[in-house]
Amino acid sequence: MNQVGGDQERAGGPLKSGLLLTKLYAPAPREQMVARDRLLERLRPRADAKLTLVAAPAGCGKTTLLAAWYEDEARRRPVAWVTVDDGDNDAVVFWCHILEALRRVRPELAVSPRPQVAGSAGIVSAVLPSLVNELVELGDVALVLDDFQSLAPGVSRDSVAWLVDHGPPTFQLVLATRTEPAIALGAVRAHGELVEIRADELKFTVDEAAALLNGALELGLTRDEIGALVDRTEGWPAGLYLAGLSLGGVRDRRSFVNTFGGSSRQVVDFLAAEVLDAHDPSTLDLMLRSSILERFCGSLCDAVLEQDGSEELLEALAEGNLFLIPLDEHGRWYRFHRVFAQLLQVELEHRHPGLVATLHRRAFAWHRDNGSVDAAIGHAIQARAYDEAGQLIASVWIDYLQAGRHVTVLAWLKRLPDYVLRENAELLVVQAWVSSLAGKRDAAASAIAVLERRGSLDDGPLSDGFSSLEASLAALRATINWGDVGAGIDGGRRAAQLEGPSSRWWPLICYALGGCLYFSGEFDEADRWLKQAMAPALALGQWRIAVVAFARASLIAGALGRVVEQDLFACEALQVAQDHDLEEVEGELYAALGASLAARGELEDALSALEQGIVVGRVEAFPRAIAELRLEQAAVLQAMGRHEAAVSVINEARAVVGACPDPRMLAERLAGVERSQQAQRRNGEETLSRRELVVLRMLGGPLSQRDIGRELYLSLNTIRSHTKSIYRKLGASSRAEALERAHERSLI
To answer: In what order do the strands lie in the sheet with 19-20?
Structure first.
C-alpha cells in the first residue's frame, strides 16, 4: 500500500483535474507560416516506421512544421498532441497528459489502471501494456510529443522507449526535440523503422525564405538579398524571421543584409535596437516581464506587471508576432517561442537588474490563489521565497501522493537548498514519508535522523493534519517498517495514542497497526484494528486503505479458520479495487484472493492470483508483501504436488525474510514451508485433493463435521470420508494431530 490521504481534484488557471490543458493543443498555423511540402511528405505515416523523430536546435522550426502537419493530418485520422515540460519528469503527470490527449481524439480509449493509481513505478508494468492493447483495438492514431528534450533520465523517458518497442503498427509516435532523444535508436534505425528529420533538412531554402520575407512579411527583397540572408543565417528559420522583423524598419536594406549576423550571439546583440524597441513601451514591458513565465494569460500578466489591460495587448501582439504562440483554442493562454523567451530574459536582466525575483514572487501569489500548485511552488523557489514554497509543499504533499506523484514532491524538495530542509521540520517529515513510499530507504532514514537530532518532536499540529511530528513519524514506522514488525507495532500504538479516531490519518494508522499485529501472530487484536479502518476509509474516499484493510482482515479470518468470513472480506476487497481502478496496484489484494481460493480448494485460480500479486508486489518493492505472497504461493504449489516449482519460490522467500530485521510470523511460516518440503521429499507423502484441503482448513475452526457438511453442501458421510482420507495422508489419528501436521507442512 503506497498511498495515503484522500482524493482531491485541483483546478485553477489552465488546470483541470490536475491537467494543464494548454499542453494538449497544437499551435494554430499562422498566415505568416511558410508551406514546407517537402518536409510534410516525410512525416506521412509509414506502416514500417516505429518512430518519427524531428531533432534540431531551437529556432529551426520543429514545432511550426509539426503544427502545419498536424492541421493537415488531423483531417484524415486522429492525431493527439502533448507539449512536454519539466513537470513531465514525473511519469504520472506525463502519462496523465498523454492519455487525456489520446482520449480527446479517441474518446473510447479506456486504460486501466490510471497513472495516478499505478504510480510512477507501475507505469511500464501496468499502464503501458493496457494502453498498447487499447491502441491495437482502436486502429490508426498518431501522437506528437513536442519539446521531448525536457525529459531527464528516468521513468518518463524510459517509458517512451518501451512504447517505441511495443507500439502497434497502427500507432505513429512523433518526437520533436532540440537534442538527441537519449533513447536507444540503433536497432530501430538499423531495421529501417526510424524516420528522421534533422537540422540540415529544416534549414530554409531560398524559395522558402522568399515566401517568408517577401510573401508573409512583404519586404520586397531581391533574390540576391534573400540568398545573402540565407547564407548569413545558414538557413536558420528563427534568424531569418528576426532579420525580417528588423528589416521592416530599415531604410538601407542592402547594408543591413551585408552586416546582419545570423548566430544567436549576434541576434542577441541587435535585438534591443532592431526588434524590441520597434514596439510601444507598454507592449515592450509586457514582453520583457512575462518572459519569466512558462505560460501566461491576461490576468496572470496583470498580476506580474501590476497593471490592467494585458489581455488586449497580448491579443494585438499575437496577430503579428510568430514568436508568441497561442496555447488554446480560445486565445487566452500563450507562451513565447523558446529562443525569443531566452532573448527577452537576457534583455530583461540588462534593463532591469534584480527584478526577476520580484516578478517570480508575484507569479507565485497568482498561481497559489488560482489553485495552480505546481506552478506556484516553482515560482516561489525561483523567487527564493523558500518559506512560502515550504509551507505550500507541507500542506499539499498528501494530495500529490494520493495522485501517485511521489516524483513531483521529491523534485520540489531537491530544488530547495539543504539549509532550508535542515531547518524546516515539516519538510523533513514530508521527505521521510515520500522517500519511504517511493522505496528510497536511505533517503528516508537520513531525514528521520536529522529530525531526531533536533530534539523535541512535539511541535504542535502539522499542515498535513498530524497532531505532531512524533505522531507522523510513529505512523510512518507502522506503515513502512521494512520488515521490522516489532518497530511497526510500537509505532502504530504510539500513533494511535497521539491521534485518535477524529484524525484524517486514523484509517491509515488502524490499517498499519493491524497489519503489523497480523505479522506478529496477534490475530484477534489485529482484526479489531483493521475493522476500525474500514468504514472511515470508505467514508473519506481512502480507497487503497479500504482495499488493504479488507484484504488483511480476510487473511486473518483464514488464519482463524473462518472460511466464510475469509471469502466475504476477500470479495469486499476485490469489489472496492474494481470500483476504483486498483486491481493492478495492490499486492495484498492478491494475497487475500489467493488464500481464499486455496481455502476453497481452487488451487489453480489461487496460484494465478498469487502470481499476479507478485508482479504488483515487485513494483511496490516492500519485502514483507513479497515474502508473504511467495510463502502463500509455495504452500499452494506443495498442495498441488509441484514440489520442484516450490523450491525456487521458497528460496526467494528465504532471502527476503532473512533481510527483515524482525519478520515474526513470516519466519515461522517459512520454517513450516521448508519442513513440509523436506518431509515430502523424504517420505513421498500423498498430496491432499482440493476438496480435502478445504475440509482440512475448516477442521481448524469451531465447526463440527456436520456443520462443515452444511457449509459445503455435502453429506455428513462424505465429510467423514474426506476426514478419514486426510488423517491417513497426514499420518494422524485425531483432529488435533491432523491440524498439527498440517501446520508443519504449511497446508493451513
So the answer is: 11-12, 15-16, 19-20
